């Protein structure tokens, strides 16, 4: 995770500096594009987990061995090329390289938050009320029903798409079920 922060931290800072310096975007609208990127990430997180990880690119390893960090973090080359591809898609969509870059930095921030939270959920350190609620839903996805609770950092898109169970069950113990396997 440290490597990711060292790679993406300067990248995001650089993208901000270049975008704002280009004069194409003011500071306050830059913040709005960034926020839009974070919101876009929450949707991407849901859609990727539901349709890629439980579709054409399954993440069986993570379900079989939830605490193994190698199966939690996405490979750096994959997330970097994903971020690059997203920027290239957003460029024509927003009509500006700077706007596209700022949205992409929001997506990257959301992505890093997701990796940190996902690691923490499987770490065995309980955390506060919000973390415990997120863990309860995520462990429901792991140990009770893989067809619900696809959102990791928020239940928002599970509510939107109707994949939030009425009563998530906390299964698998405080850490995870891998030690029993
Ligand atoms: Zn899953
Ligand atoms: Zn997990």
Largest sheet, described in full? none
The total tally of domains equals 1
Structural class: mainly alpha
| N-C termini distance | 26 Å
User: Residue share in helices?
Assistant: 55-70%
Number of helices: 7
Mean pLDDT score, rounded?
Answer: 91
Chemical compounds bound to the protein: zinc ion
Number of DSSP E strands: 0
Sequence stretches where pLDDT stays below 50 over 5 or more residues: 173-181
The succession of helices and strands, N to C, reads HHHHHHH
Strand coverage percent:
under 5%
* Rg calculated over all Cα atoms: 17 Å
Overall shape: it is: elongated
Structural overview:
The protein is mainly α. The chain is elongated. The two termini are 26 Å apart. It has helices spanning 2-21, 27-56, 60-64, 76-94, 97-121, 129-143, 156-161. It has one domain (2-180). The protein has 7 helices and no strands. Helix 4 packs antiparallel against helix 5. Helices cover 66% and strands 0% of the residues. Bound molecules: zinc ion (ZN) (2 copies).
